[in-house]
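#struct-queue
[09:14] JT: dropping the first one here, sequence first, then the structure tokens:
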Amino acid sequence: MKQFLLLFFILSSSLYANENIIIGDSLCTFIDNASKKADRLAPKGDLAGTHLWYGGTTLTWLKEKVNLYPVTPTVRNVIISTGTNSAYSTNDDIPGLVDALKTKFPNANLIVVPGSWWIKQPTRWVVTVSEEKVRDYYARFEALGVTLTTPVGDSRVCCSNDPHGNFEIYKTIGAEIDALIN
């Protein structure tokens, strides 16, 4: 059994050997499309459980997945998209996620892409929090030494009420990420 686990961790580390990874929620798709230097860790639907992104997930889900991931010192930058699906809850364990990321990716810089507010899907408003609440949420990351990019922003302005799409704001965010990870 020990040999199997060792082989699994070696293979999973080499399969996803990108030095600059994007993890978190559904916005990872659009961040990935806009960055030339970072990629989502693994494809959606990776049943081995080695992926660290999935649509509709919360910070709690991400922290649990990170804690299961092998220590990977070859990762240089971790780009994180999270917060929207928990409506930027003050109960989110941001210090726990940051600690887990620093443990699993000990040589990585942490970069967070602040999410959006006022998200409307076809029949209902999904996230109706204020810009102030969103900025306060991500200030908690920044206080822990995590770098922030430009936020996705007010989806009524940037994204036709829903941030799920290859909107211009992602080009700005992707360029910022690429500049940060040179």
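[09:21] JT: and here's the second one, same format:
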Amino acid sequence: MHDSGANFGLPPVAEAPKDEKRRTRRAKIARPLRVRPSEPRDDHFEDFPNSVNVSKHGIYFVTKHSGYYKGMRVFVTFPYTSPHDPMNSEYLAEVVRIEPVASSKFGVAVDLKMSMNMSSRPAGSRRF
């Protein structure tokens, strides 16, 4: 490879792959999440994996659950601590990639479509 010297001694910049579809950078964050199907036609399950990396628009996790398929709509609670934690954030998401990563484990990438937290009540108001 011929170096024209145009980078003035700086290390070469890696180019993004041409088929890169990510809109934002990923951060390596391992946090628990809860995943469950959103469509009634899919068999109900609750999966509690840890995230491997996250971005503003997606989450990648590794699971032993083999019921995921590309295009599947799921509810994702991230981060997940307990069923009654008011800080839980739930999203409607779509499975965009599934890949085998180890013996009987799968890497799953989901695209976050919209937040399901629609509390529009003012803080301190009561609902009867």
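[09:30] RK: nice, looked through the second one.
[09:31] RK: Confidence is low (pLDDT under 50) at residues 1-8, 13-18, 120-128.
[09:31] JT: good to know. The two ends are 72 Å apart (CA to CA).
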